[in-house]
Queue: 2 jobs
Job 1
Amino acid sequence: MAVRKRLGPTGTAAEVARAAGIKPDEGRVTLSQVDRRRTQLWSVSLFVIVALTVAVALYWLAYDLLPASLQLASASSYVIGVLILGLVLSFVLYVIDKESRLRTVAHMLIEERVLSSALSNRLSEISALSEVGKAINTTLDLTDVLNLILSSALELLGGTEGSIMLLEEDGEHLQVVSYHGPKVETVMKGRAKVGTGISGTVAQSRQPMLIQGDRVQKGRGHPERGISSAMSVPLVRNDELLGVLNLNDTERQRIFTEQDLNALGLFAEHAAIAIGNASIFEKERETVARLEELDQLKSDFVASVSHELKTPLTAIIGAAKTVSRKGREMDPEHHAQFMEMIERQGGRLLRLVEDVLTTSQIESGRPMKRVLVDLKAAANEVIQELVQTKSGEGRTVELRAEPDKPQIWGDLIALQQVMTNLIENSLKYSDEPSRVIVTVSETPEEGLLEVADEGVGISEEGLQVIFERFHQVDSSSTRKVGGFGLGLFIVKQLVDAHGGDIGVKSAEGKGTIFTVRLPKRAADRGKLNSDVD
Amino acid sequence: MSTDARKILIADDEPALRSLLKTNLSFEGFETLTAANGEEALRVIREEAPDVVLLDVMMPVMDGLQVLEELSKGENRQTRVILVTAKASSEAQLQGWELGCDEYLTKPFDLDVMIDRIAEVTGRDDSQTETRRREAIENLREEASP
């Protein structure tokens, strides 16, 4: 539009050209046509000037020989002179007019060419961006998408190398994640500090930066890397800085312009979207992996439950069968032995079932009942119960209280469950004979429960997982002890519900010490479940 | 085989089950030995050469299948092996038979069936043992393939 306005009402290049005496070829005028026409015009003008000069010279030389009627000062010679002068004048005017029209046409053609080249640039920009957009929607691998963005930007905008850097978790450094160019090995290891260098400055200001030759010479950029022109734009999504997209030219072939910088900004927007999508996808994948792991744990749990239940069931069914088969001929001693076996294995079965129930209760959240708990009395009850069923095999449990009567506010049943599970666990993993020492104490802020054993201890790897649901440190078929792997999970959940914490120290072969710290007043969480997901 | 009382080794890490089986087998007139883990079981089998071992699979130190594998390595195994385990899946049973067990009982077991099986395995000669093992494996494979 701007071009047409400047030319006024003269119309399109073709119309102007027609007026200038050029026949448009299929409606189009080319610059060479205009050039040819101008050459013709100038040749004709030159010819006319030369012809006139020759004519004047001849006239001058042959003046004396001419008849009087053709000599100056005669009436007819005036007429001829005026005529010739008029011809010459109109020829000059004609030439000037043609020339000006031809110049206009040439100008218009050049402007048209510039416009159409800008248009085709814009088209390749759009098609490159649409390629990138398609890739974002179809490719799930972030590295692939970023590589494509980078190569498209380089292809479209020129430059010899480009890189995408992402902000590290510390928020202080940028790490190169994608690079195209000749120095892959050095650059891919590259890292920049936010606030320094081109990328660092862009990351800090979140403003695009364009660096042309003179600024490079003034010390901007990396003269040692021979960068002659560079652009850098921030990658931002939801007001959050993700990284930086850089293009450099090291061959002095290309000086980036503002337009290039704007185009690079469009690529940066796509890159930011891709990074955002990838992080959503990554989170989804993590969730799925976590669910799969939980699912696996649950299947293992079911297998383990069925095995664990079968052992006491086998003993109960077997003992009952023995009594019924041999009832009459059986001596009282054996009879009593089998009856006791049924009772004890029944109790074991019950505890296994209760563990499962407690876990599901914790998961659904039982309301917490807070009372003043005498830790020593509570522990004593638990120990008495356990001693009857467990420690007849050379294992003893010792209770120490400092001061004599440590007290805290908490849920009595939950706290006794914590004690039971910890002491039972210690007994389970102790060889006979050995002892378990239970210590209860208090400070002005906390109540403490410590359960120390001389058992097999827990390995480093074991310590990582002992409080997780369904985990038993040794789940191999040669494991030493049974159980569902719920005991310590339950302990952890109950302690958490009280706002306390549990720690463990262990040395393999030497023993394990569990330390539970409970606030004097249990945190009012209302329910006996914490962050069970 | 001698007319002496059959010698049975009970290998199980669960004391209640050891005592249950020991008492019952004594009632039936068998001589009983016990082992609380796989390693112990292997030692007793080598030293005492019992006629039958009732072998649990999930045991500490060395599991029942490892014991069976060790036994099957030696030539002319005299001791018959009855696996007694909570592992009831066809895959687990197939694995047991392929490692060379003579019978496979799942927990909870029926004492009458167990006593019958003990009589059966000790009554078989080598070719009968082979036949029984082959048939069991074929049946389990059929079960496994749809």
Note: The first strand of chain A starts at residue 161 and ends at 167.
Job 2
Amino acid sequence: MTVFRTGLLRCALLGVGLTMAAALSAQQAPPAAPPAAAPAPAAAPSPTTLELKAAQGKAPSSADLQKGDPAGTITGTISDVPVADTSVGLTVPDVATQVGQNKIAINFVWTLITGFLVMFMQAGFAMVESGLCRVKNANHTYMMNFVVYGCGLFAYWVLGFAIQMGGAAGNGNLGGLASLTPEFSIPFFGKTWGLFGQSGIFLAGHTYDVGVMVIFLFEMVFMDTALTIVTGACAERWKFVTFCVSSVLMGALTYPLFGNWAWGGGWLSQLGTNLGLGKGYCDFAGSGVVHAVGGITALAVSLIIGARIGKFNRDGSSNAIIGHDISAVMIGCFILAFGWFGFNPGSTLGASANGNLRIGSIAVNTMLAGCTGTFGAMLYMWMTKGKPDASMAGNGLLAGLVAITAPSGFVNPTGSAIIGLVAGVLVCLSVVFVENNMKVDDPVGAISVHGTCGLWGVLSVGLFADGTSNYGGSWNGVSGSVTGLFYGDASQLAAQLVGISTLLGFVFTFSYVLNVVLDAFLGQRVSAESELAGLDLPEMGQLGYPEFVFRSEPEFLTGALRSAAVA
Amino acid sequence: MAANQAQGRYLTLFLAALTVLCAGIAYFSSGIGKLVGLVGVVGLVAALAGFSSIKGGEGKTPQRGGASGLKATGAILAAAGWILVLVGIQIVTTTGGRIVLGLLGIGVSLYGITSVLPAAYNKNASWKG
């Protein structure tokens, strides 16, 4: 029995073990997978993707590039296009993104380089103005033109740019400038009119933007041109500290206000959309915004400051006070003409898309107007006075350039030549009128060159704009091309007249009142004693040419008028 | 006396105050911005007061005062021509009418600027003796 029990026990244990092993094995085994589905066919690559891949395959290899590329035929290829997803490879969106980057980069570079040219015009202004002044004021005159750059840049950075461009979002050439918003606007006779911008003080916050930096630099150098114009008209007697304060305030307030109205989305540019006046006030590169603002402010300050001692006799007749360096004047004029290639063509704010290929036309228009302006002034002086006066020939060049500044983007070469020729004659007439009729002393002719010819430039847009330009199909929000009276649109002339009225009525009055206040607190003019001695030593502490031996000035400058001046 | 250290100090104060004022304007919506702006205004007023205090010691200029009424008239005429255009173009709706209005307004402004104001300043001009 015992053997049987033992055997039976062993069989039971064996069975339990086998059962447990089977159960364990069943738990460990994965569930049976369903039968595998057949793989889906891969989507066929698009023809464009295939082309891109084929082109990538044909691109120069590293081995090719290591051999050097003297002809430049294998540098800059499809391999240089950034790829968003390397696992996918080059795609059409990658290419489109690079196209967009290229457009903006081209426009950035164009705007910056032309802005650098305009900045260099400060040197031209310095040479022209100092050359037309007496040697005893050379240091002072050069210093005004040197320091005005800093005064203007400072004022524009702390406030002026925000007022002028703080609401100017929407420029497609520079990436949209979307952070330049909003524009402060008011209702007037049922329409909304922009007055000033509200973004961009110190270029901080959301205006710390690559596109905003570009437009800031470009607009700043234009603003500084307006400021430096005033130094010429007030040379040889303007107190240096008052010049500094006046320039800062002009860069912070006067210029930016009108600049906003014309270029920053303000009310002058809205005359077309709100009242149907052409394309609104049009000023391509600033005959009005820059030159007329500068010339008109120069007139305001010159009135307050008064004529130089010895400029006028008791009977009202004027005396010519000759400048000390005509070579500086002539070279300075050429520097200005060179810089104007940045001033006018650069005002497209781009060289890619939106009609910007017109930059060559604009440059040629600029050259032609300068040329005919020179001839206009030189021939007028030659026929009336008997000599081809060098300083007036230089002013004629500048007059033509100033006058073409506003219409340069809208007119043809023939119109440009006419505009320049008229400006050349006009500047001669204006100089005589300002000096002999108004009895305003302007040592360099800044009021006539920039004020009078700047206004002529604004007017000429309304006359000569030929309707062939196309900067993205519209201007100031009005579709179509800028067209003047002679080509069929009288309403454009009306818009330009509103701009001229604003320059005369607002800019002059604002500048005049501002500088009357400064005269009351600071005094605009140096003492008669300093003026007679020359401003270099009293104001600057150093002569411009310390090794020169100065000859005595003519009697009319130092004689009885000295006693009258200090009476 | 011409350029001097006091001028340099007050110009520095003016520039600093203007910077502070603009910082206040930038952050005007906040309480601290308003306070900063007020500091800037005070600084500007102090600078102007300082300039005024030293002005008398800088020597006699050839400028002569007077004719204030005529000067004000000239400035008012300059502005009036512009106001005439601003309002007139809203009322007159024809292009020809707006051109005429523009020319009229320009004429008024130019009369004030080129005739009335120079006459005011030349009335007591130093070169007249």
Note: Residues 95-123 of chain B form the longest helix (29 residues).
